[in-house]
Amino acid sequence: MARRLLYLTGDKNRDTLPNILTSAGIVLDALHVYATHGSPSFPHGLENAIENVQAGKWHVELFN
After folding, report:
1. Per-residue pLDDT tens digits of the chain, which is 64 residues long
2. What is the spatial distance between Cα 12 and Cα 31, in angstroms, rounded to a whole number?
3. Is the Cβ–Cβ distance between 11 and 32 less than 8 Å?
4. What distance in Å separates the CA atoms of residue 20 and residue 23, rounded to the nearest whole number?
């Protein structure tokens, strides 16, 4: 009997992990559960965060 895995994914999914798992004999049941999109409040939020960093209140890390 094949091993099965519920594979939660988003709209920007690469095939690297699915290929590795599939080659190991694991059957994936993919479920699209999230999507990436821009935020209309990002420019204001970033400006606010930078002001707080300059005031010594925060440490900000941006990642993609």
Report:
1. 779 999 999 988 899 999 999 999 999 999 999 888 888 999 998 898 888 777 776 665 666 5
2. 13
3. yes
4. 5
